């Protein structure tokens, strides 16, 4: 039985686009579920509509608490039989409520080699620190910020003349690749979470 993969987004949606295309082309054995944005009018929602993927804006301001907002998203995700949630540039922290609803079934992409540079502006953090190598990480989401068990990582060089934009672009290419690969492994039942470690069953 194919798994259904849905997405939480907040903006541009290039990671969502890359994974959705890989599913549509049959490179990942899965079905695309839905896309939910916490921001209106973002490019990710346009891409979803172009691909005929059900797309929703769930406005956090319409709910009294974060958990109420997440409950509305969780209800929608379940209505569409979501097995895996991919947070692809979703810029809001998830509460333990949502994390538990989809325990070890939420994959995030982060633009740094975790545990270095968690949180926002990871590429700028890496540049400001002066590291020579940065990269990206996919991980399952736990209750912390970018702290869950790591699935895949890819390193990229940092050059002396890099700006936040040039480094971000170099990392983004690799983000798409490791996110596609991570979702594929999940959908093939090849990821086993054992404490902090994710074992890849080959
Ligand atoms: C990516 O760099 C992702 O790692 C970070 O936010 C950015 C989102 O880009 N969390 P996009 O919306 O997938 O194009």
Plain-language structure description:
This protein is of the alpha/beta class and 202 residues long. It has two domains: 1-102, Formyl transferase, N-terminal domain (Rossmann fold), CATH 3.40.50; 108-202, Rossmann fold, CATH 3.40.50. The chain contains six helices and nine strands. The protein has helices at 14-24, 43-50, 66-79, 96-101, 122-129, 164-187; strands spanning 3-9, 30-37, 55-57, 84-87, 106-110, 133-140, 150-157, 191-194, 197-200. The chain has a seven-stranded mixed sheet with strand order 3-2-1-4-5-6-7. Strands 8-9 form a two-stranded antiparallel sheet. Strand 4 (84-87), helix 4 (96-101) and strand 5 (106-110) form a beta-alpha-beta unit. The longest helix is centred in the C-terminal third of the chain and has 24 residues, at 164-187. The model has no long low-confidence stretch (mean pLDDT 98). 5-O-phosphono-beta-D-ribofuranosylamine (GRF) is lined by residues 11-15, 88-89, 109-111, 172, 175.
Give a summary of the structure in a few sentences.
The chain has 202 residues and is of the alpha/beta class. It has helices at residues 14-24, 43-50, 66-79, 96-101, 122-129, 164-187; strands spanning 3-9, 30-37, 55-57, 84-87, 106-110, 133-140, 150-157, 191-194, 197-200. The structure holds 5-O-phosphono-beta-D-ribofuranosylamine (GRF).
């Amino acid at each position: 039985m194919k798994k259904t993969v849905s997405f939480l987004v907040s903006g541009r949606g290039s990671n969502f686009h890359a994974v959705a295309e890989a599913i549509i082309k049959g490179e990942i054995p899965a079905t695309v579920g839905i896309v939910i944005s916490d921001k209106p009018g973002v490019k990710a929602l346009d891409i979803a509509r172009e691909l005929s993927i059900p797309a929703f804006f769930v406005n956090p301001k319409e709910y009294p608490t974060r958990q109420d907002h997440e409950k509305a998203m969780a209800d929608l995700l379940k209505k569409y039989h979501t097995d895996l949630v991919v947070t692809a540039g979703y810029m809001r922290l998830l509460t333990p409520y949502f994390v538990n609803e989809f325990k070890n079934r939420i994959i995030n992409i982060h633009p740094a080699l975790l545990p270095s540079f968690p949180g926002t502006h990871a590429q700028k953090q890496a540049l400001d620190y002066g590291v020579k190598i940065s990269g990206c990480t996919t991980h399952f989401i736990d209750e912390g910020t970018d702290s869950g068990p790591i699935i895949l990582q890819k390193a990229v060089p940092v050059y002396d003349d890099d700006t936040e934009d040039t480094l971000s672009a170099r990392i983004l290419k690799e983000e798409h690749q490791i996110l596609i690969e991570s979702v594929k492994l999940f959908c093939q039942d090849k990821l086993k979470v054992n404490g902090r470690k994710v074992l890849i069953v080959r």
